[in-house]
Amino acid sequence: MVHYVSFPGLFDKVFKLNQVAFHIGNWPIRWYGVILAVAFLLGALYLMKRASKFETDPDTVIDLLIIALPCGVLGARAYYVINRWDYYKDHLNELLSIWNGGLAIYGGVIAGILVVLLFGRKNRHRFNILSFLDVGALGLLIGQIIGRWGNFVNGEAFGTATNLPWGMVISQTATGGGAAVHPTFLYESLWNLLGFTVLHFYSKRRKFRGEIFAWYCVWYGFGRGLIEGLRTDSLYIGDTSIRISQVVGFTGCVIGAIFLIWMYCTKAWKRIPAFDLSAPGLVPKEGTEEKVADCEEKIPEEQGKPEAEEEAETPSQEESGEAGDSKDE
Questions:
Q1: How is 265-324 classified by DSSP, letter by letter?
Q2: Using one digit for the tens of pLDDT, what is the confidence trace for 65-120?
Q3: Where are the alpha helices (DSSP H) in 51-183?
Q4: How many whole angstroms separate alpha carbon 155 and alpha carbon 140?
Q5: 112-143 confidence digits (pLDDT tens)
Q6: Nearest to 132 by CA among 73, 35, 216
């Protein structure tokens, strides 16, 4: 569970990496799990902080994440197992052995989206599905930025051999050599960091609901598709040489790009209330509609009252004359 990593083209230091962070009794707690937990926590804190800007509240975020976390883990595992079924069909006892690795981010993302859609249908008064997908994409990027460093500790998710200065060497001994390889985990972490930075600031001026999520699909899908081509541990479609993550990544990128181009060129969000940020994003809670109606009726009445009172209090010339005649009499 110990290996050594170095970057000989940059500096002479060798990193000794132990996959186990500590033990609880005889049970090893791995750094991979700790890093993923930190990634999830920071992503959740970001969602809670920005919830009000995306038509929801922190309590709803917590309720949704409590459901999404286990579903996301199961989805990530299921995605991996399905695409490695040639192995797991003969090792059914390892189907849930996630502590030995075998989680695919796309499976977790798909499961998370399904949870948001199902939860949203029953809780429309608590959040807007499209807006939550927007902020959820930003939180997911945070998780991916940090989570990829779990691959570094495990000595996995690296690429083919390279002569570039930042090539990474992984060995079982401190003095062991070997070919330098692409640190693809680092490429993806930095790509996601750049994407998060850009989308975080742009999200403050988003034009329509679903825009940030679409940009996430474009940004992450394109980057993952390119980086996946360098990796040596990819999942493939059957017996072909086609990498599954490249197909999913580039497909998501194309669909997201088509959707964005259509929205920007046609200004469709101005005609479709579901995307229009100025349209109501939540179903009002019980009694809210009546209160709003009362306020709308009350405001015109109050605005018109002074004028009406002034007209009533100011007698006409005829009334003044009649009043004067009566007094004289």
A1: HHTGGGT-TTTBTTS--SPPPTTHHHHHHHHHHHHHHHHHHHHHHHHHHS--HHHHHHHH
A2: 999 999 999 999 999 999 888 888 888 888 888 777 788 899 999 999 999 999 98
A3: 58-82, 85-88, 105-122, 129-154
A4: 23
A5: 999 999 998 888 888 899 999 999 999 999 99
A6: 216
Sign for the CA dihedral angle at 154, 225, 214, 122 comes to: negative
Token digits of residue 266: 């046609």
Q: Which two tokens stand for residue 93?
A: 């006892």
The tokens for 321 are 């004359």
Please give the Cα distance from 321 to 139 (Å, whole number). 77
Q: What end-to-end distance do the CA atoms of the chain give, in Å?
A: 116
CA distance 40 to 71: 14
How many C-beta neighbours within 10 Å does residue 316 have? Answer: 9
Dist. CA 233–CA 322, nearest whole Å: 102
CA distances from 166 to 11, 151, 184, 280 (A): 9, 17, 11, 50
Q: Which residue, among 33, 108, 37, 34, has the nearest Cα to 74 in the 3D structure?
A: 108
